[in-house]
Amino acid sequence: MVLLLLRRKARGLLNTLRGLSAYEGVRNLAFAAAGAGLLFGLYSGFYRLLAYLDTVELIGRLLLWKLTAMMMLTTFSMVSVSGLLTSLTTLYFSFDLRFLMQAPLSVSDIFIEKSLESIFFASWMIGLVLIPFIIALAQVCGYGWGFHAAFVVLLVPFLALAASAGIAVTLVILYLFPSSRTRDAVYVLATLSLTLVYALIRFAEPERLIRPDALHVVADYLNFLKAPTAPYVPSWWLTKGLSSYAAGQTGVFWTYCGLLYASAGVVYGLLLGLARRMYYVGYSGAQEGVVRRLRPPFEDLPECRVGRWLGGGPGPAVLFWRERKCFFRDVKHWSQILLILGLIFVYLYSVKRLPLDNGDIRSILSFLNVGVAGFVIAALGLRFTFPGISLEGRSWWVVRSAPVAVGDLMRQKFLFSAIPMTLVALALGVMTNRLLDADPFTARLSLAALLVMTWAVVAMGVGYGALFPMFTVENIHQIESSLGGFVYMASSLAYVGTSIMILSWPMQMHFKERFGDAAAWDWRIAGVCAAAMVLLNAAAFLAPWVMGRRRLEAYEGP
Amino acid sequence: MIRIQGLVKRFGTLEAVKGLDLEVPPGEIFGFLGPNGAGKTTTVRMLCGLIKPTAGRAEVAGFDVATQTISAKRSIGLVPDEPFVYPKLSGAEYLRFIGELYGVPLAESRRRIPELLEMFELGGWGGELVESYSHGMRQKLVIAGVLLHAPKVLLLDEPMVGLDPRSARMAKDIFQTLAERGTTIFMCTHILEIAEKLCDRIGIMIGGELAALGTLAELRSKAKGGGSGLEDVFLSLTGGAEYAELLKNL
Hints:
The structure holds two protein chains of two kinds.
Chain A (H helix, E strand, L loop, with lengths): L1 H17 L3 H33 L5 H33 L4 H6 L4 H35 L3 H32 L3 H24 L18 H5 L7 H13 L3 H37 L15 H8 L4 H16 L1 H22 L6 H27 L10 H5 L5 H31 L3 H28 L8 H5 L2 H32 L8 H31 L5
Chain B lengths: L1 E10 L2 E11 L4 E5 L6 H8 L7 E6 L2 E2 L4 H6 L1 E4 L11 H11 L4 H14 L15 H14 L4 E5 L7 H16 L3 E5 L3 H7 L2 E6 L2 E6 L1 H7 L7 H9 L5 H5 L2
Parallel strand pairs in B: 3-8, 3-9, 6-7, 7-8
Antiparallel strand pairs in B: 1-2, 1-4, 4-5, 9-10
């Protein structure tokens, strides 16, 4: 039966591949090429880091293997948390579970199929990121193809173990608290933990370990480097297995290999035993709704009051109210917000720790920060602004059949995104300028540029969201990773890059003036730059917006 | 109240509605029947502005649905075939949202929303998120929503699907009362018994064309088989005996 269920998945995948049009094939190839490019970038970064560490006298190799052990430990933790989160959906809320549960199948068979699916989805992407690291390690140390094969042999049980640990936690939690609210609570707590771990790692300043001026302390922790990193965790067994293979100790390698496979078998067996007792209880509880008893909404809505004060009609105001209610009641958004707050803190902390004494360089960095912050805003736009229209979902008919113009809906979406995005831009811009102590001209120019950029990126997000609506998708990730998402991200980045390019001219003149050139400013060039910025922003604001509005007005899908 | 002239809708090479001409006066309950894929839902979607006609013209309450879309929509209440509603709003919040969208005064919303929720036996559910509602409860909520803003024209696409017998009976009574007060009701349905009892006139769409139009008595006289019920009339027009051979293999 399990094989039948797995064949069903394989058949579905095959049908999807066969059904691809030429256009979809090319598009997927483009995505694959972009992914390969990203992996190559990671490889280059890992290679430079590992090659540098390898040059450190006496302890170079020790550092390499210590880093590998830490990398594997991080991977193990991430796959475990990912297994926990993924299995919450696949084991308890998959669309096909209603069909499977009423079919003449044993709960164990269903669990096996769904747990294998969870293991795969929890680990494939994190496992993929390890590949450039291992290739870089092999190249730096001169290991051959056998090393890669040994890694693959060790990796499979390692990932299965990590994901199984996460799945076991989910099983127990849903068994003890069988409710649909448990999923929400676990989402938020897991994200909070990840954010905290990420922030703590950053605040520990790991870069100090590899800075030459910090190396005098290395002798003190030589023993620490030689000591195992979490010896009872499978990540250490993987590291030991790999290092043994590299050192030609095949006996030790097979010992750790056997340990990993045996542990994976035992843990998965225990998981099946747990599932027999717990899975059905948790599944049944997770399907039950939750009583909320929300207050009747009979007060004058704040959005409507503001709308009246601004002289607008009730349509956009009440759309904003609905958006606010729906957004903050969706726990998946909370976890994203927590992550973003964590990232902003880490970003600002990293800026603060930049070892810069020269005021000019600090000002230049403050200007270049506009590009980095613009990239952050574009990434946030892809997650929050671009999917806005598509998230109307199957309820699209409510607004479309109501006396509300598509333009009003788009303006509401713009406003709803622009307010928090402006706050993020202000936090990044003002704080960075203060931390870097940028000169007044640079501070003002970079902040103004960042604000305009933010609003343009938000307008593009709404416009492209309307141009590529997806009202029937099941989750937000499908919207983000769609062709429209790709086009939006590429356009936003092109816009940010072009803006920086144009603004670099007045910045050059400003710095020439700072360095004593009294006739540095050529007002004709400054005028051309201003005109170019106006044109660029007009195109960014209007082109996707108008095309999107027309597309949405003519939309004929479900 | 509804005037349709030469209405055409094409989806690529498929012509879903082929030059439909139809008028429905104020206060009439018009039943729109036809087999699956006949073009009924497409017609409703054009009338309420969800999709644009390829050719022809449709007017609702005197407004052209293609060019005076917003004015036309103010006069329309739509109950779609699938009652998808924002899952993260409560039932009462959804009704308040609809009230604001259609310009219902706050004082009236305060009075009418609890009344409508009680009427549809959703009184205890008004504070619950719609995601916890059953299909039938969502259907009742959507019907309550269109009643809240008292439209001149009701476009109903399978409004009784999912309703329990009591609610279905109440919905029928509500539609009849509204029609007596002058509301035009344009209803697509596969439940022939409802069409037979409720509708003043019936139109039968087949393959995108209006194959028959008239009162039940007029349709009976047109039917080839000469049966007495709407089911016989419907089957004689759409063909229904072809499956008899297949049944033997069941």
